[in-house]
């Protein structure tokens, strides 16, 4: 009887894993703004809802919003300029730009659906063109649907983990493999966002060379021995500068 139960568990586990793989294959769609085929399992409306729901809690983790309406207005002005002069204006997302009160953490990031954040610690070190580069990069994450892609990948590995647990009591191992896979997806996302950020800067009349200066600022913020907070969401700046130079050359030569 025990042997029969073991066979049933293996069968159910394999069925769950197979279902996860089939879903992964059928969820692929082409991003109309980047042309890249992605594994996505949510609508743009769901992305927007997730971003709006998460934004207040995320802001609170960074001390809330910076209490200066003029500086916030500047961030809004630059962000909206980038949106209005790029393909971002054709997307269904609701772009909102938030200046966070954190004066210690060098960081900028975007939630799905158009919620974009920059800490005052980073903002205070940037000129207008550099801020445009940072915001353009984060808009690129939204257009690239990177959060939705990571969520789909995470859901896939959770389902596989359930199947492995049912079949062989090894869900924790598969779960760790899924987590590692998610963490390694960041580099391509960042490079795609850098490329889009350069394009958005050019379309809005900003010097894209300032994006390289942003990378230098981020590197300097790390110091010789300290890993900065932004590296939890962005890879090492040195690894991105050459690709940014290539993006500048490509987009400057394109009408």
From TrEMBL:
Transmembrane segments: none
InterPro entries: Mito/Outer_Membr_Metalloprot, Peptidase_M48
UniProt keyword terms in alphabetical order: Hydrolase, Metal-binding, Metalloprotease, Protease, Zinc
Cofactor note: Binds 1 zinc ion per subunit.
Cofactor: Zn(2+)
Domain Peptidase M48 stretches: 71-247
Name of the protein in question: M48 family metalloprotease
Superkingdom to which the source organism belongs: Bacteria
Keyword Hydrolase on entry: yes
